[in-house]
Design a protein that fits this description.
Distance between the termini: 48 Å
Strand content: 15-25%
Radius of gyration: 21 Å
CATH topology of the largest domain: Rossmann fold
CATH superfamily of the largest domain: Glycogen Phosphorylase B
């Protein structure tokens, strides 16, 4: 690893203090950062901490030659930067050069990772996914707290998990979300199939409420608040945009249709038109269990890191430092901080006004 003239590399570390206080995810983030700090200490770097406000994920980060940056919940161009975010299942985090979900390098350039996925041992991959699926079901564990009461429905329905309306990953949509939902309901009705919709636990949108009230009047549509594990288990098919519930459905071995860009898209049946979506509901493509298991195994054990895997974090940060050279000026660091707060303020105003 190349050293600076002073013998140490400087790593700018974004500190997501607001996320640490989150009642659902706060402890998870604190555990991840505890391991991250241990990895950085072992690497012998100097830290330049930057306090990160909410709403700054779109703010440009330093991406040219200079100090390495470890960013949180951001997306943008590649460079001397790793962008971290909690993954779809705990205790994993992604560390991607371009961002998370539909913004990631994996979503934008899946061909770069194809060989690594193909190299995974099929036996180990299958055993890992089966064990994880059982663990998640038994513990009723998901990103958001799930109800313990299990209201079961007659199996064989199409399950559609919804997302919050202002979700940043809506940028990855290939179809209008409301039109796609109507298309799913109509396509299922044409097949004599029932549809179960589950609203996102943090969704407060009046337009979503109105649409669900409308669709809920149809005889083949039910709204459910049951655990996603119960709904996935009883579904014949799961469809949606790029919700993390689709990733969980893949772990449980269900066929999945997606109509938005995501970092797990290659393991789903991806559709980009309403006609394709309707046909996929009528005749879903047969999943490839071998590829699905190898993808999930690679995704969680190589692409992601566990919150307690300090060695894996060191490898990823070390590779980043090996590719970095030089330092940013103090003025550049100051401009970086100003950009974060400017984007945060703009995002908060946009959400209030629109």
């Amino acid at each position: 690893m190349a050293d600076t003239a002073k013998g140490r590399r400087i790593v700018t570390l974004e500190v997501p203090e607001a996320w640490f206080r989150d009642p659902e995810d706060g402890q998870r983030h604190r555990l991840f950062y505890s391991s991250l700090l241990a990895a950085l200490a072992d690497l012998g770097v100097l830290l330049d901490p930057v306090w990160l406000p909410r709403g700054a994920e779109r703010a440009p980060r330093p991406d040219g030659a200079g100090d390495a940056t470890i960013s949180f919940h951001s997306h943008g161009r590649t460079g001397n930067i790793l962008r971290c975010k909690e993954a779809y299942v705990s205790p994993y985090y992604t560390m991607d050069r371009m961002g998370y979900a539909c913004f990631s390098e994996l979503a934008s350039h899946p061909e770069r990772f194809a060989d690594a996925i193909a190299r995974q041992d099929a036996g180990r991959a299958g055993a890992f996914v089966r064990a994880l699926a059982q663990e998640l079901r038994q513990e009723n564990r998901s990103k958001y707290r799930q109800p313990e009461k299990q209201d079961r429905m007659e199996p064989g329905f199409l399950f559609v998990p919804l997302q919050v309306e202002n979700d940043s990953v809506a940028k990855g949509l290939w179809l209008d979300k409301f039109k796609a939902l109507r298309c799913l309901v109509e396509a299922a009705a044409a097949q004599g199939s029932r549809v179960v919709l589950k609203r996102h636990p943090r969704c407060r949108s009046r337009s979503v409420s109105a649409l669900l009230a409308e669709l809920g009047q149809r005889p083949n549509v039910s709204l459910s608040e049951a655990s996603i594990h119960t709904l996935i288990a009883d579904a014949r098919l799961v469809a949606g945009a790029n919700s993390g519930v689709l990733f969980e459905a893949l772990i449980q071995g269900k066929p999945v249709i997606s109509y938005a860009a995501s970092d797990f898209g290659p393991a789903t049946q991806q559709v980009r038109s309403y006609d394709e979506l309707a046909r996929a509901v009528a005749v879903p493509a047969a999943p490839d269990p071998g590829f699905r298991d190898r993808f999930l195994f690679w995704y969680l054990t190589e692409y992601c890191v566990r919150t307690d895997d300090i060695a894996a974090m060191k490898r990823k940060i070390g590779a980043l430092l090996d590719s970095a050279a030089g330092h940013r000026s103090r003025d550049a660091g100051r401009a970086y901080r100003y950009r974060l707060y400017a984007y945060s303020l703009a995002d908060r105003l946009r959400k209030r006004l629109f």
